[in-house]
Predict the structure.
Amino acid sequence: SAVISQKPSRDICQRGTSLTIQCQVDSQVTMMFWYRQQPGQSLTLIATANQGSEATYESGFVIDKFPISRPNLTFSTLTVSNMSPEDSSIYLCSVPRPGGYTFGSGTRLTVV
Amino acid sequence: KQEVTQIPAALSVPEGENLVLNCSFTDSAIYNLQWFRQDPGKGLTSLLLIQSSQREQTSGRLNASLDKSSGRSTLYIAASQPGDSATYLCAVATGNQFYFGTGTSLTVIP
């Protein structure tokens, strides 16, 4: 399985600021996915990040709030912009592998 | 749109018991189904992947079955241990889209 390094593992941020989350994969992948898990909820797909094109966002998520970069086939970032307490969640990146999907270890974000 | 439901939402069992977690989905046109484990505040750990053409997969004390026609999967945990305490999520894949259940929170009491 692919190894994904996700940073930071956790952060406490002030409302109105932005946080950029990074995912580095140990092999080239075409697609990377970003998920959010709000407290007590299951995972929700935010967007699909393809190298060389704009990310595809799911309903309820917009680029201005969650800009994504995908500069190459092993790296992606998700920025949570202009944060509010409602953005407090665990954010995860994921890549598809022949044996299933592999997930990063997650970023636990608390907005105060 | 695919909907995935997991029952029960929470389960508490004494150590050593065998247990079954259930997952149901509304659209049988899936590519695969995956079971994950999530420890509090952590990311996901993949447990078992069942392709749509398969009926079951086994790994150690875990056995997952898939019945596509009825839209059901079960995760069987044998001889449960306190270290099995976690939230278990199932997810069905349709194309590149994953649909997650809401999870079953398992507590194994020593």
In short: Chain A has a mean pLDDT of 90. The interface with chain B takes residues 1, 6, 31, 33, 41-45, 48, 90, 92, 94, 96, 99-106, 108 of chain A (CB under 8 Å). The longest strand of chain A covers residues 89-97. Residues 30 and 73 of chain A are 6 Å apart (CA to CA).
